[in-house]
Amino acid sequence: METRIEKDSLGDRKIPKDAYYGVQTDRALENFPISGLKPKPSYVDATIHIKRAAAVVNKELGLLDAKIADAIVKAADEVLSGKLREWFVVDVYQAGAGTSHNMNCNEVLANRAIEILGGQKGDYKTVSPNDHVNMAQSTNDVCPTAIRIGALIEVRKLLPVLENLEKALLQKGKEFDNIVKSGRTHLMDAVPVRLGQEFTAYGMNVGRHRKAIEQAAETCEELGIGGTATGTGLNAHPNFRPKMVEQLTKQTGIQFKTAQDYFEAMQSLRPMVELSNAIRNFAQDYSRIANDIRLLGSGPKTGLQEIYLPAVQPGSSIMPGKVNPSMAEMVNQVCYQVIGCDMTVFMSAQAGQLELNVMMPVVSFNLLHEIEILRTATDVFIKFCIAGITANAERCQYYAENSTSVVTVLNPHIGYLAAAEIAKEYIKSGKPIRELVVEKGLLTKEQLDKVFDLRGMTEPGIHK
């Protein structure tokens, strides 16, 4: 392998000649062969956006040579278009704060900018990773800013998918609105509900969580870039902060704001925790909905089977003809992973000390990962499960008519205790509830015809 020699503050090191990364990235590769997990694409995008914006702003402020700035911008545009991605190689689990990731990005952009200017990789006199690409920046303000930007990039893709899920569930609510079934509380018979009411509630729940996630994401719009090492802004032009926010807004289309307090923006990962918390809250309800769908579709002969789920794959390697609720099971697993990611974000956020939280690398991965998998899982869940759900109307009607809890409608007419006796005798004898009520002379057949309106029982009111 052909190599070139690069030097950092620790000494000389041989670097693969064709590598766009440099000496500090190479040290990170040696030091952190931990998981094989690389930075999320949106995190790379976010960091490169910061480097591009800094080159533009420092050029405008007269601090960075125009040729160097333009070369960095061109290199950044290439990366943002999808090129050179194989050179962002530092493991997710690395030294604190994210210096290795920051320098990986600095070195790739510097080496590509050197080529654009006609030089050879590693000639940092032409374009320096530290002095030029990282001008007026520190890992300590770049990484928390990049996490915020990356999260907003991912949330922008997540929210429309959640809206699609909401609409799909509400549509099923309309489709199933005339289907009466037995309600269940404690997994036991309860008064009738409509299948449509259950699905409409699912859709409403998703919509509420979607709005909560959108609101939580807004906290990430406040950026602390320009705080440099500790929040003071040392080595950055006084106008660097507002100009960076303006330039990043222009580049991403996201309306950013300058931090109210640059020290707080660096010390605390509060916005990331708030967003992750909102996503976790959705995950727990989402998993509950997936569980309900599995239960409603259970069977076909020994379960509820009130709905039919689309068959997406054979369900057993030994039991012929078995079909499982595979897509709902997948959603459950994704939700558990999301909750685990949120716990990592939460614990990491409280682990900061004084002017910096050094746990940012693992926060960046887990926050972006939970958003990404939630989006992709939901996309296929809608397509391969929700959209194809149909109702087993006959089974629903049977359960509604034979539920012991339909006696509840008798309470205003014969009293709770008498209705309870009817329920117990119904369970013991198997005789229809109507027959038992007439036999005991509690109500006439004509009165029962008015009282036992199953559809009416799914709405407020007293049946007379």
CATH class annotation of the largest domain: Mainly Alpha
- Tally the helices: what do you get? 17
At the third CATH level, what is the topology name of the largest domain? Fumarase C, Chain A, domain 2
Largest sheet: 2 strands, antiparallel
CATH superfamily of the largest domain, by name, is Fumarase/aspartase (Central domain)
| Morphology | elongated
Low-confidence stretches: none
Radius of gyration: 30 Å
Care to describe what's here?
With 464 residues, the protein is mainly alpha-helical. It has helices spanning 23-31, 41-60, 66-80, 99-116, 129-133, 139-175, 195-217, 240-252, 262-267, 270-296, 326-349, 360-384, 393-402, 411-414, 416-429, 433-439, 445-451; strands at residues 3-8, 11-16, 180-185, 188-194, 222-223, 257-258, 307-308, 390-391. Strands 1-2 form a two-stranded antiparallel sheet. The longest helix has 37 residues, at 139-175. It is elongated and about 100 Å long. The N and C termini lie far apart (90 Å).
Sequence-ordered SSE layout with sheet pairings:
Layout: E1 3-8, E2 11-16, H1 23-31, H2 41-60, H3 66-80, H4 99-116, H5 129-133, H6 139-175, E3 180-185, E4 188-194, H7 195-217, E5 222-223, H8 240-252, E6 257-258, H9 262-267, H10 270-296, E7 307-308, H11 326-349, H12 360-384, E8 390-391, H13 393-402, H14 411-414, H15 416-429, H16 433-439, H17 445-451
Parallel strand pairs: 5-6
Antiparallel strand pairs: 1-2, 3-4, 7-8
